[in-house]
Design brief:
With 211 residues, the chain is an alpha/beta fold. The chain has a single domain, classed as 3-Layer(aba) Sandwich (Rossmann fold). It is built from nine helices and five strands; from the N terminus they run E-H-E-H-H-H-E-H-E-H-H-H-E-H. Helix 4 runs parallel beside helix 5. The longest helix has 26 residues. The mean pLDDT is 92. Adenosine monophosphate binds next to helix 2 and helix 3.
C-alpha cells in the first residue's frame, strides 16, 4: 500500500543535538504529531524476540537493519492512525530519527511526503565533545543503556557520519533547511516554528477547503 497523503517534516542532526526535545515540544502543539523511532524501539518488550534483536544493535550504537526499522515504523504509525491520535489530513508528522540511512529514505518514500528536512547543524569538534557529555548526562538521567558508555556514544557519531549524513543529499537543497542548534530549547523552537508553522497552516487550510 502506498500513502503519500502523510505530510512530514524530518528533524535531522547528530546524536544529542536536541531532536527529541524539539520533537516533543512540537508534538504538544495541536496540528503536529511527533514520532520518535528511538522511542518506538525503547517501548518494545525487552524480552520479546524483536526487543532482543533491536537491543543487540542499539546497545552497540549501531543502526537497526533498515527493513526491520521501517516495518516497525509503518506498523506503529498505522496503529496510531487507527486510534485517531494522528490524523494525516490535518496533522503535520514530525519525524524524529527516521529515515536514518539512504535505504530508509527509499523505503519510506511511498508512505510519506517529506516537505522539509530540519537540519540541526552542529559544526566543530568542540560542539561534538559538548554533545558527547550531554548524551552521557542524559543516559544517567533517563537510564538509557546505549549512551551510558562513551565508546558507544562515539560509535553513534561514526555511524551518523557514515550512514545518516548522506540522507541530506537525498532531499536536495530546496527541502533541507539548516538551523543553529545552539541556544535555549525555546530559542531553537522559535527558529524551527518560523519554518514549520506556515506549512502546518497550509495543511489545515487545505483540509478545511476539502470538507
Ligand atoms: P535515538 O533515540 O533516536 O538516538 O535512537 C537510539 C538508537 O535506536 C540508535 O542509536 C539506533 O541504534 C536505533 N535507531 C533509532 N532510529 C533508528 C533508525 N531510523 N534506523 C536504525 N536504527 C535506529
Amino acid at each position: 500500500m502506498t500513502d503519500r497523503s502523510r505530510q512530514a517534516v524530518l528533524l535531522f542532526g547528530a546524536p544529542g543535538v536536541g531532536k527529541g526535545t524539539q520533537g516533543k515540544a512540537l508534538g504538544c502543539i495541536p496540528g503536529f504529531f511527533h514520532f520518535s523511532m528511538g522511542d518506538a524501539f525503547r517501548s518494545l518488550e525487552p524480552d520479546s524476540e524483536l526487543g532482543q534483536k533491536v537491543s543487540s544493535y542499539t546497545s552497540r550504537g549501531e543502526l537497526v537493519p533498515d527493513e526491520v526499522t521501517v516495518q516497525l515504523w509503518k506498523q506503529t504509525l498505522e496503529e496510531i492512525e487507527e486510534s485517531d491520535a494522528y490524523r494525516p489530513e490535518t496533522d503535520l508528522l514530525v519525524l524524529d530519527g527516521i529515515p536514518r540511512s539512504v535505504r530508509q529514505v527509499q523505503l519510506l518514500s511511498p508512505h510519506v511526503e517529506v516537505l522539509r528536512v530540519l537540519h540541526l547543524a552542529c559544526g566543530d569538534e568542540r560542539t561534538k565533545e559538548h554533545l558527547v557529555e550531554r548524551l552521557r548526562k542524559r543516559a544517567l538521567r533517563e537510564n538509557r543503556a546505549d549512551d551510558a558508555k562513551v565508546e558507544v556514544i562515539r560509535r553513534r557519531f561514526e555511524v551518523y557520519r557514515a550512514e545518516t549524513q548522506p540522507v541530506v543529499e537525498e532531499y536536495g537543497p530546496g527541502v533541507v533547511v539548516d538551523f543553529d542548534p545552539l541556544g535555549t530549547p525555546a530559542e531553537v523552537l522559535q527558529r524551527i516554528l518560523s519554518v514549520v508553522a506556515p506549512i502546518q497552516r497550509d495543511l489545515t487550510h487545505k483540509a478545511a477547503a476539502a470538507t
